[in-house]
Amino acid sequence: MPRLTLVGTLLLLAGAVIAGSDPTLTEPLSRDNSDECDCYLVSGPDPGYFQYYRFWDFRNIFSEGDEDFNNPPPLVTSSQNSGGQDVTAAFFDTNEWNDDWSILNDLEEPNATVPSINSAQNVFISTENGEDGNDFTYLTFRASRPSESFVSTAEIDSSQDNVLHSSIRTRARIIPLYLDGSAANVVAPIEGVNASHPVAPGACFGFFTYRSDTQESDIEILTYDPVTDVRYSNQPDFNARTDEPVPGASTQSTMPDGKVWTDWHDHRIDWYNGISRWYVDGDLVLEKSLDAPTEPSALLINLWSDGGFWTGNMSVGSQVTAGLQWIEMAFNVSGVTKGPQHKLGKRKRQKRCSIGCNIDGVQDIGTPIVAFNVTGIKGDASDANGKVSIASQLVQVVLAFWAVLLTSMM
Ligand SMILES: *[C@@H]1O[C@H](CO)[C@@H](O)[C@H](O)[C@H]1NC(C)=O
Ligand SMILES: *[C@@H]1O[C@H](CO)[C@@H](O)[C@H](O)[C@H]1NC(C)=O
Ligand SMILES: *[C@@H]1O[C@H](CO)[C@@H](O)[C@H](O)[C@H]1NC(C)=O
Ligand SMILES: *[C@@H]1O[C@H](CO)[C@@H](O)[C@H](O)[C@H]1NC(C)=O
Ligand SMILES: *[C@@H]1O[C@H](CO)[C@@H](O)[C@H](O)[C@H]1NC(C)=O
């Protein structure tokens, strides 16, 4: 175990014990694949933990009936200019999906240079032949320019809209044009496609926390940027009054080790009190305190374009697709949410964190590993309401104190 993690874990252990009667754990179902954890520890400079966890895995979606995940749904046509299309797969009609996400399906920005119109037809499941010979599926977003008059775009919003601080991640990429989601999975550039920039310019892939245009922390990939570069911002990054960028609010960052966003990488944003941090494949690449959001937010994911300064223009007839294998979110909440109201899980939530789990450095993403377990220490000192007796708290504080002391002597 790396030392930082050990120190962090022990500090957390102390914190968990001192916060023994914390009444804020109300959500019954952990929804991590281990179903053993009360709270979730993330890697990084702040030894913090989160109370909630979600893992949405799109790698093994089964097709139903005549659904064919090897072929994308038809492009939105120039006459389909007001949204309202059907969802593209039975998966998007399940409670599993609808409890947590909504697919936007209408006009987004009527007054933009080129209006963007979200369509459910641009959110679909694709298949890829994995390097190990195993096929896997992924969630796909598409943006296209059916005509001069609009761009057809894609967005999903989380129902969980009371997130206050989180560590969110996705394994994603912009699909290169020579790998267009078709059955063939062509690996050589096709004629007319620039091999060093095999993506149409003019679209923006966004993965971000959102409450309002001034309460937002983003990961954005601009498809006109070099394939090595990602934009990280806390909003507002643009001053509408002076029509100028806000200095320091947005950073164009080159991914480490020559990585490109046309390959699968794990993109992560940690939103803590007063600071946002961005990671690629677990490596910290940037942190920013300016304008870190302070209000409860939702998670939004989109692929959009509006002909403006930020995205540029897509040319008529062009398209961009983005893929997501999974989304992972460890988070705290504040206030009520419009969803999800899940039914009770098989294991009742404790009102304190007795079992803390690491979500990073685990063998299977989405299956956290137990880092500490103080269930035994608590013994039968807890009453039915989760209150811990003074005596048992004292014992725990002493134990935690020793743990921290031992660590500091290492
Ligand atoms: C999440 O909430 C718990 C309980 O209030 C708190 O101890 C912890 O520090 C919070 N985590 C972060 C990263 O803010
Ligand atoms: C678009 O512009 C019209 C006319 O200026 C205005 O009334 C309307 O509120 C604007 N819509 C949005 C969504 O900004
Ligand atoms: C291909 O893309 C690269 C990187 O954006 C650019 O430098 C180059 O000029 C492009 N080549 C052509 C033929 O457009
Ligand atoms: C995009 O195209 C429109 C015309 O359709 C033009 O008015 C606008 O300036 C263009 N945007 C950029 C960033 O070049
Ligand atoms: C935690 O510890 C208790 C008591 O020792 C044990 O019964 C339980 O199985 C442990 N849970 C996990 C997830 O390790």
Any overview of this molecule?
This protein has 410 residues and is mainly beta. It contains four helices and 22 strands. It has a 16-stranded mixed β-sheet that branches. The N terminus and C terminus are likely disordered. One 2-acetamido-2-deoxy-beta-D-glucopyranose (NAG) binds next to loops.
Cα separation of the termini: 14 Å
Element string (H = helix, E = strand):
HEEEHEEEEEEEEEEEEEEEEEEEHH
* SS elements, strand count: 22
**Biggest sheet features:** 16 strands, mixed
What is the radius of gyration? 23 Å
What is the approximate shape?
globular
Which structural class do you get from the secondary structure elements? mainly beta
User: What hetero molecules are in the model?
Assistant: 2-acetamido-2-deoxy-beta-D-glucopyranose
Report the average pLDDT across residues. Answer: 82
Instruction: Report low-confidence residues grouped into runs of 5 or more.
Output: 1-30, 341-350, 378-410
Q: Level of helix content?
A: 10-25%
- Per DSSP, the total helix count is 4
Strand content: 25-35%
